[in-house]
Amino acid sequence: MFGGIDMLEKELKKDIKIEMELIDTHKCRFMGDVNTYDITLVEKDFKYTKSILNKPFFGSHILPFDKEGNVFLEIQYRFPIQETIIELPAGRAEPGEDFFECAKRELREETGCTAEEIIKISEIFAQPEFTSEELGGFVAVGCEKTEEQDLDNDESVCVIKIPFDVAIELVKRNIITDERTIIAIGESRYILGYEISNNSSNIEQIIEEIKNRVKEEEKNLIEKDVGIDYTETCEFGVIRDHIVKVPGNKNSRRECLYVKAGDMVLPISKSGKLGVTVRYMPAVGKNLVQLPSKMEFDKDTKFQDFGEMVTAVGYSNDRQYMFLAKDLEENDEFIWLTKEQVIECIKDGKIKDGRVLAMILKYLL
To answer: Cα–Cα distance between 62 and 119 in angstroms, integer?
Structure first.
């Protein structure tokens, strides 16, 4: 047998000796500094160049539940991906705020709700391949609307309330594709133990109404590009600062990070175990649980389409296409974990790459 919690912990704690020499830097208007380094892996005597986006701020997201077990979600147009999506209240922290204060403020501003209790469920890295940004995840319980939204001048958000089991179904059907929203729904199920009521006998009708609502709201939420202030090419992609026309016929700006779409594969053995790897991520300076890409498998491997995921939609077009590789032999290429062990790892905060966590939670749902 290859794997288990002990092996995973050993790999996560492994000391990786690297040397980083700063060779170039570029200051962005909004996102922070793009620093380019010559990186040397000391033990392997291997050298390569990598750009890292060092963001001066972090963010929080929060999934609100009312007393009846419904969740408040948002319909919002996201300029970097040119799509109107369903997501949860989220935003970057203001100076002096911590994760909790940021989440509480975003809940109030974007939904007009107050909560009886706010529970922290996770801390993750948004895009650890090329940025240091951290996100705090929360669940708000006993929510009720007590005031009107207090949105930024260039922010347009439509709030909807749906049963929790419908939210789970939206994830399964690839209608909810936002990384943070998938994580919060999945962790509500597997960390907080929220049960699926299956009380929505008309679930198909509800989902169709939600899809139609998204299409209808897009007409009011869409943002149009009317110019570009600057463009900067980096090792990981392109940063472009757009001037956009937002709802209300006002101009605003959207500094966007454009990267090449990637793919992620969740290996599943014949006995139903999940396969993961551990890699050192220079952008965050840590070993993180990772999933392989299709190119890391034998050419005869059969892949099952598992939908797609978008991440950091406030400023990035990062999109991951997800696949399952089933009925694999357990070998030493991966650390193999039972579903129970994976849930234990999630509860203990061992899976901190948001994309990896979201894909695993979607599979568990």
So the answer is: 9
Nearest to 267 by CA among 304, 310, 308: 304
Same domain for 67 and 179: yes
One domain, residues 86 and 193: yes
Dist CA 39 CA 33 (whole Å):
18
In this prediction the pTM is 0.96
Q: Where does 146-261 show beta strands of DSSP type E? A: 158-163, 224-234, 237-246, 250-258
Stretches where the chain sits below pLDDT 70 are 1-2, 197-200
- Helix (H) or strand (E) holding 331, with range, is none
Q: Evaluate whether 52 touches 282 at the Cβ level (below 8 Å).
A: yes
Cβ atoms of 177 and 85 within 8 Å: the answer is yes
Lay out the sheet containing 250-258: strands in order across.
Answer: 224-234, 237-246, 250-258
Name the amino acid, one letter, at 74. Answer: E
**Which pair of structure tokens corresponds to residue 134?**
């951290």
pLDDT of 328: 96
- Looking at residue 199, its pLDDT comes to 62
| pLDDT for residue 57 | 85
My answer on whether 236 and 253 are in the same domain is: yes
Q: Return the DSSP state at 295.
A: G
> Which of residues 258, 280, 305 is at a domain's end?
258
Look-up: residue for tokens 């939204």? 149
What pLDDT, on a 0 to 100 scale, did the predictor assign at position 260? 94
Is residue 82 located within the same domain as residue 213? yes
Domain assignment of residue 234, given as a range? 224-258
Both 105 and 200 in one domain: the answer is: yes
Long-range contacts of 267-272 (CB under 8 A, 24+ apart): 267/291, 267/292, 267/325, 267/328, 267/334, 268/324, 268/325, 268/326, 268/327, 268/328, 269/327, 269/328, 269/329, 269/330, 269/336, 270/327, 270/328, 270/329, 270/330, 271/330, 272/338, 272/339
Contact present, 186 and 364 (Cβ < 8 Å) = yes
